[in-house]
Amino acid sequence: MTPTITADRGQEARTIHLIDPAGFDTWRGAQPPRIRAAVAAQRLTPKPGKTATLPGEQPDDWSVVTIVADTTTLTPWCLAHLPAQLPPDHYRLASGTPGAAKLGWATAQYRFTRYRKAEDDAPRILLSRDPAQIDEALRQAAATARVRDLVNTAAADLGPAELAAEAKALGEAHGATVTITAGRDLETGYPMIHAVGKAAAKGREPRLIELTWGNPAHPKVALVGKGVCFDSGGLDIKPSSGMRLMKKDMGGAAHALALAGLVMETHLPVRLHLLIPAVENSVSGDAFRPGDVLNSRKGLTVENTNTDAEGRLILGDALTRACEGAPELLIDFATLTGAARVALGPDLPATFVNDEALAADLIAAGTAEADPLWQMPLWDAYDDLLKSDIADMVNAPDGGMAGAVTAALFLRRFVTPGTAWAHLDTFAWRAAAKPGRANGGEAYGLRAAWRLLKDRYGQR
């Protein structure tokens, strides 16, 4: 992303006046007649997001007034509507600093340009008097853009090989070690990843992507991201309407990559282990079948009751591998279940945590960052729904009840007891744009997880 925020060193800039509904009438009453007339002509009302241009003393002199919910507490999105309304220029607030609003200012200027040139890509640059926080805002905006770019890319251009290349480039930029296990080499060590991905065409073979970084003496943190680069549903094939957005089924991998990038860029004192099982769930004569019994890296056998419940299979092998490193903290991101969207809609990742202290910290981090999460139960009584008559477990219980919960319980079988683990069932897509949040690929839970890691390890 082009830098859209810079330090205020007294440069020439347009002024942005912030008014909240409580102070609107007082502010308007204090303005000279020409300002009141301009405000009236533009139909400015005390509703957050409303904006008007204020004439200055000279023809080229003008400023902006915009309504925010509360001038004393700026949210990440309270200024995000402005870049789309203002011409390219430098801007500063009339008083105070933009604080959290810097993020929305930056993310509002995101453009996905791989397939179409942006109509307007000249930056609107916000000046800020808190330079120490500028870099962090731009880092978070760039991480969000990484998720959006990866999820928005068509599946024809982003298969397992390209996802591996993305991880290699990230690792090279930060001196990390990247290891790729691919194709038939997965068959014995990662049999569920191999089973799900083996039907893909040549060049799109399944892979387990691993990145390690940091001092081995530091606390171990493992990040796992579901990397289903396209999900046809397999032999339990999806209808065309269900397949339409399945390029986004690697959204978990995009989140994990972006979070790993933040960890390495800021030199967070952790030993990082990033794992991405990358597959395409395709249909061919070699596709795994309903009724097949799959081996797993952990040694558990899984009766495959639905080839469209493939994400939990590849995550099972990856979580097993992650736990072999005995991490202090394990977080996985996955576009895992439609049931989570039915329960919580697109904006709230269904969050499952096996450690109450971790759950409290993670939810609090989401609240602090305006990146909300919603905790769902690892309800032990539903564990029986995973029973199989012929194997250790099924991957998808019959009936469809509590689908997000049973998927999380399936994953829990592959997490070593005692390992603090959080599973974020995230949508990774925004169907309707909001200020600062374009429609298309989207990061949900990324900033919450990053805040958690900073709070836990940043001061060590």
From TrEMBL:
Database matches in InterPro entries: Leucine_aapep/pepB (IPR011356), Macro_dom-like (IPR043472), Peptidase_M17_C (IPR000819), Peptidase_M17_N_1 (IPR048816)
One Pfam family per UniProt: Peptidase_M17
Protein name: Aminopeptidase
Alphabetically ordered keywords of this record: Aminopeptidase, Hydrolase, Manganese, Protease
Keyword Manganese applies: yes
Domain of life per record: Bacteria
Domain Cytosol aminopeptidase as annotated: residue spans: 306-313
Family as reported in the entry's similarity comment: Belongs to the peptidase M17 family.
Top-level taxonomy: Bacteria, Pseudomonadati, Pseudomonadota, Alphaproteobacteria, Sphingomonadales
PROSITE patterns: CYTOSOL_AP
Keyword presence, Repeat: no
One of the record's GO molecular function terms: aminopeptidase activity
